[in-house]
Predict the structure.
Amino acid sequence: MPKMNMVEALNLALDQNLANDDRVCVLGEDVAVDGGVFRVTKGLLEKYGEDRVIDTPLAEGAIIGAAVGMAVYGLRPVAEIQFSGFTLQAFDQIEQNMARLRHRSHGRYPISMVMRAPYGGGIRAVEHHSESREAYWAHTPGLKVVIPSGPRSARDLLHAAIDDSDPVIFYEPKALYRAFREDVPDQPQKIAIGKAQIARQGTDITLIAYGAMMRPALEAAQDLKDLHSIEAEVIDLLSISPMDTQTLVDSVSKTGRCVVVHEGPRCCGIAAEIIARINEHAFEHLLAPIKRVTGHDIHFPYFQCEQHYLPDADTIIEAANETLQYE
Amino acid sequence: MPKMNMVEALNLALDQNLANDDRVCVLGEDVAVDGGVFRVTKGLLEKYGEDRVIDTPLAEGAIIGAAVGMAVYGLRPVAEIQFSGFTLQAFDQIEQNMARLRHRSHGRYPISMVMRAPYGGGIRAVEHHSESREAYWAHTPGLKVVIPSGPRSARDLLHAAIDDSDPVIFYEPKALYRAFREDVPDQPQKIAIGKAQIARQGTDITLIAYGAMMRPALEAAQDLKDLHSIEAEVIDLLSISPMDTQTLVDSVSKTGRCVVVHEGPRCCGIAAEIIARINEHAFEHLLAPIKRVTGHDIHFPYFQCEQHYLPDADTIIEAANETLQYE
Amino acid sequence: MTPSAPELAVKSSHIPRRPKITPPKPRKDISTPTIALGEIPNLQILNEKGEISDPSHEPKLEAAELLRIYRAMVLTRKLDTRMLTMQRQGEMGTFAPGMGQEATQIGQIYPLTKKDWFAPSYRSFGAQLWRGWTIEGLMLLWAGFFEGFEVPEGVNDLPFSIVVGSHVPLAGGIAIGIKQRRDDAVVVTNFGDGAISQGAVNEAFNFAAVYKAPVVFVCENNGYAISMPTDKQVATPDLARRGPGFGVPAIRVDGNDVLAMIVATTEAVQMARAGDGPSLIEAVTYRMSLHTTADDPKVYRRDEEVEQWQAKCPIARFEKYLMNKGLLDPQAIGRLGDECEQEVLEARTRFRERAKAKPREVFDMMYEELPPELEQQKREYLAKLDRKGVQ
Amino acid sequence: MTPSAPELAVKSSHIPRRPKITPPKPRKDISTPTIALGEIPNLQILNEKGEISDPSHEPKLEAAELLRIYRAMVLTRKLDTRMLTMQRQGEMGTFAPGMGQEATQIGQIYPLTKKDWFAPSYRSFGAQLWRGWTIEGLMLLWAGFFEGFEVPEGVNDLPFSIVVGSHVPLAGGIAIGIKQRRDDAVVVTNFGDGAISQGAVNEAFNFAAVYKAPVVFVCENNGYAISMPTDKQVATPDLARRGPGFGVPAIRVDGNDVLAMIVATTEAVQMARAGDGPSLIEAVTYRMSLHTTADDPKVYRRDEEVEQWQAKCPIARFEKYLMNKGLLDPQAIGRLGDECEQEVLEARTRFRERAKAKPREVFDMMYEELPPELEQQKREYLAKLDRKGVQ
Ligand SMILES: Cc1ncc(C[n+]2csc(CCOP(=O)(O)OP(=O)(O)O)c2C)c(N)n1
Ligand SMILES: Cc1ncc(C[n+]2csc(CCOP(=O)(O)OP(=O)(O)O)c2C)c(N)n1
Ligand SMILES: [Mg+2]
Ligand SMILES: [Mg+2]
């Protein structure tokens, strides 16, 4: 089993899907000749030709609009938006067409497409290149939203997303693109969109995270164990919408305490939704208020300050400790 | 004191601000000659001329972009987007410029502008004309978001929004435009953005709502009193962002039970945020899980079904009763 | 291998790189002008008096065909009028009447086959009927019943778009798909003079031009975008020239002349089918009626203007042409009108039978399979209907 | 009454409806071509060999002025080169080099006064320096220090935009404000060949044309949008013709000829100031260096192409012109180069002194006053810094 980084794993998933299903095609800015600014689509043009690996003019709205049209026609486009910050240029097309056309056409045109975009901080980027606004899409009916946390989940989730008959927003934690390698089997493991994974078992507190935040969350869990003998259960959300409420509720029902971690702004973010659901389904098991360790409701800082802004293991530990000490 | 409906009250607020401050101007589709499709800007062109009451071409992104530019120049534009569904056409301009330019310019260009838009269901409208997506803006750092619940709060809030030196999203519950009349004094009452109002005092349960949902919330409170001798406290949020956390927390700390009501989709909606905050600040006072009576995570139904979809007094009462019976 | 949309039945392991396009069969019966990238050509064939003003382009259509076209325009207007009455009587929601634009409507899709695609905006009764949407379906959706949006079997069209201009990039996307598959279908999409200000529409022009996608853009310049006259919407004397700025050849057509519309669209569709890429047709017409039933045009336009356009009525004009040709007489006109009226009334009966709200179905068609959280919300919602005794 | 931006000092109770525009002072020293709505005119004054190819348009600028322009281009390139070194040594973040576009940069803002406005995109070192932004400021912001974005006193410009095309509607908005106030300022905004595909930019063309707003659109066609060559970005042989499609007069200029850029911009600015509305200048130039420091152009373009453009270098060309005029000799060139290099190095020293991250300030400038919830988040965040011992 080859060890791959996330870029390679995503490339593999695209390659296999292009090979196996000629309805699949890839489009976006610089995806063909250049192979993508992060090289996720490298080599695909040479293999599948310019009809299926398509460089587009610089217009995100038109990219999504075109992809929706292609899906209507029966293709399975995977559209890349170069940075998630520029998905806003396509917000109208995403909400008004991508999310709605199955419904508007009374089921006639299911929009089986994927919108890929790198998101999140940590790569010393300029303004608009570090945002995490997955909550916009979670708040938008008709979409699915998934976020991998490593090469392997990236590969499997991308397969699942392309396979799905509904439109899927696929956010890639760009800080992890080349951060580490994992064994990635030749064939994808079938995983269902909508399922979380328990990344570490524990009994004392539940830490919920996803994407690039899985690393500090797991680090925090290890430290909690090493330093305080606390057994933290760590859940990798993977699917933001639909969300695996049951797994979250089961865990918190067991531990009674919970910290939710994400990079995006706090107000109306994913953590708020998780808290609301746990409040609804596990209220009687809660021993302490659920803590949010999230991005703040400010613009993502210029990169010299980003390491302070982003949630890290220390902050998660601090929050966990406060939660654990709550009486 | 004249009795006015919300359209007249908003018109009065615009009129007074145009009269008192020549930096104020109004722009949008059909706002000048036509006086706005809901007649909110009626008569303003005749009084203030086409330089200050500006019909625009049909491009929401350009309307917001132009308004931000005008604000940079020192004017105080009030931009109308004809229906909130079409604010998505301007999402990029709102997030990337309106919300950020004060910050990006290091404070040099505060964006003192208002984006007005009718939102919400209840007027038997076609697709895209009934959405409530205020949570998108609450999740966007740099903005303020306010929503009145009647003619008087509409007038006062619009004054406050125009006065504010930060960009304000002003959502108008279109179902209330002509729904009822209130006394609207000649001079606006100074109200601060960021403050909620206790619309009805109570001790047994807190109902939190805003906009058009204030009417069913108050109706529910009355019925709870009449039928079950329950004293519900009803809070009119008015300001969605910033949110008056203190008033909410104080009330729930007192009542121990809470139902939050809004029209918009549930997932990552305003109710989720409220629950998260109450969980953080009043956990020990909570006697029951906080209930959400909200829109569902589906596309707003075609209008023959909207009255079933929209939260109503019965549903709120049902939720309140469940909350009250929770042990 | 030609795919069948929307689901491509077969997966081909190898897609040829060279186009295999069915060579267009040049229609002998229609002689086309030249849609151009330079000076914008103007096209009118039938003048306001119903006389042929440009004989060189008069299409040689058979009598039956001419009458079919005429009937379609009459039916469109009958439906329009009836819907307005129904709306005023509370049986219909807000809708957008198309009166005065019948020639534009029928002409723009006349050259399409069933397997071609059409992506209309909301003011497209005529074209939708011609394409195979049912009258009762259109009534249902404008009356707020979801099922009205159901795309009829065998119709390859998008449901119309309410958001101005937002469907235009989709039309381009379908055309890109067609081109990729060496399918010989084409796409026609229409939008208004207001829509041409939307970034989305302009982005779509560029995409279509860059990919030489087989799409025909029909801009129905009906003089107004709600209250905004076209000459305040844009700073150019016409809308057609927007095309060449993007490399999209364009033509300006008298949109109240159904022959000119047919001829221009025929050329545009032939170009697209031949692999020559997109084109833009500006159809100059006039919205005789309200913007929507919520609108009062008296606020922003003068009655005289409307009267002037009355004289240019697309139906009356074509009627005169057919009468001059001996294909119609007052009696036939009356009979045909009654027939159309009858057709609308019969459809209204079917509409009334089907006009039952189905509140239990609002969670349908959201996803292929409802996720658990939505299942729960649905249960919650159905319980509420149960409590209220709603079926 | 002329307002002072950004805060209009005085409120006038009555705003005149008729424009009171300062009549433009036609510059005697610059004879202008005609920016047009029809055929797109081309303008080159100085050819690649540094010879005057169009004497009728050669501007009659004084020696000192010519040298000032030359120096600005050299300084721009020195800064560019230095930043690349700093980036490679880890002292700078990702940035967008402007090498090869110096003439386009200086020419496009040359005719502006301090009270005019400039809304640049991210590849605008040269123009920003000319306008009064400091070198260390630019270094700071590209090195990830927020304060680099501080608009210097007396500079009437927007901070540059990272989001392609998103600032262009703002430039139009400022111009609409100017027009409303009968101010005689104008706005120049620049953007790339890629940006012209954005809906926002096309919407801005239309708004500016409709309001006859005093804004000059400068499209720097440097051949590429990252890896996408201009001829795949659009289907037209030039970008200028996009303008007339919207009613915006346009001209295509040799962007490596600083004299042509100055002359074209002068005419465009005069038009705008005179109330004649917007115009579009396509500056044909070439991005000699990387898209950004994260880019590898070898993947998508051939070395020979770059070499061909080397021969068209805007600085070398202008140098020859000045040498032919006797205003420069190799010694002076060397001295001037050293001087500029020195200026950059001194700025780098100031940059290094100021290059201190200020993590305690990330909540600043969010709002006029921080709301309570954000106050709380700030306390939380500061406590974290305290825990980590971060100042
Ligand atoms: C994006 C968007 N903005 C605003 C509206 C509201 N609106 C509906 S129709 C219309 C005018 C459209 O004018 P035009 O494109 O000329 O088409 P017409 O109605 O004349 O057929 C407007 C502004 C909308 N539906 N979508
Ligand atoms: C809206 C948006 N989409 C994508 C990007 C990523 N991006 C940055 S520069 C660039 C190419 C811009 O090309 P062009 O407009 O020609 O300007 P140039 O870089 O050549 O100066 C792209 C795609 C962006 N910054 N903004
Ligand atoms: Mg129109
Ligand atoms: Mg470029």
The mean pLDDT of chain A is 97. Chain A has twelve helices and 14 strands.
